[in-house]
Amino acid sequence: MIDYGRDALIAELRAAGAEQRGPTALRCPWHDDETASLSVFDHSGKAMFKCHACGQKGTIVAARAFAQKISAKDAYVQ
Q1: Are 38 and 26 in contact (CB under 8 A)?
Q2: What does the H/E/C string look like for 3-69?
Q3: Whose CB among 30, 32, 41, 70 lies 3.0–4.6 Å from 74's, allowing a Cys bridge?
Q4: pLDDT tens across 9-64, in order?
Q5: 9: Cβ–Cβ under 8 A, 6 or more apart, which residues?
């Protein structure tokens, strides 16, 4: 079962290359981010992320898929 908590999501985003700049602010790994435009927040009991610069958003499944360069379906199964 996938842990949808905030700490697990931040760990996946950091594995994808996001640089943490505060408790819920990170530099986005999807683009060359000069500032911490990626935020992590809770929504309906799941931790979510959204980049306010490039618009990338999702749950831990999307972050894991990006970090491991696999499909979202494969990331969900893991």
Answers
A1: yes
A2: CCCHHHHHHHHHHCCCEECCCCEEECCCCCCCCCCEEEEEECCEEEEEECCCCCEECHHHHHHHHHC
A3: 70
A4: 788 888 878 787 777 788 888 888 888 888 888 888 888 889 999 999 988 888 88
A5: 40, 47, 48, 49, 59, 60, 63
How many Å separate Cα 31 from the centre of its chain? 13
Q: d(Cα 22, Cα 20) in Å, to the nearest integer?
A: 6
Residue 28 CA to residue 34 CA, distance in Å, equals 9
Amino acid, res. 57:
K
